[in-house]
Amino acid sequence: PREAVPERAPPTRETWGWMDSLQDHFDRHGRDFGSRDPDHYAAQAWIFLQRARIEGLPMKWDESDGTLRVWDARSRSFAAYHRDGTTKTYFKSQSPGYWDRQPGYLVKPADVPFLSPTR
To answer: Are 70 and 58 contacting, i.e. CB atoms less than 8 angstroms apart?
Structure first.
């Protein structure tokens, strides 16, 4: 049986990379996902990464700054994560070709150390 996507995320301070930026990101992008508050938005971003790992959504690794970028073409959802797996940003892009313009090379979840199932 396939692994299930978690329904709950760890605490926000464990999943969001820079707490000082969370309110701004929520204010700008929270409505894209129907987020109730900044913590809910941060949890949704973490769950998106878990879903991407399980479902094999497209991922790009940018070694120059240690950023993992994830894309869901169906929903136009995009997220970027720090080298430690914490979230940088999460939003829906309305720009055609947005994903194609993102730096990095395509990777599989197994190639990303912080996405190992033991985490």
So the answer is: yes
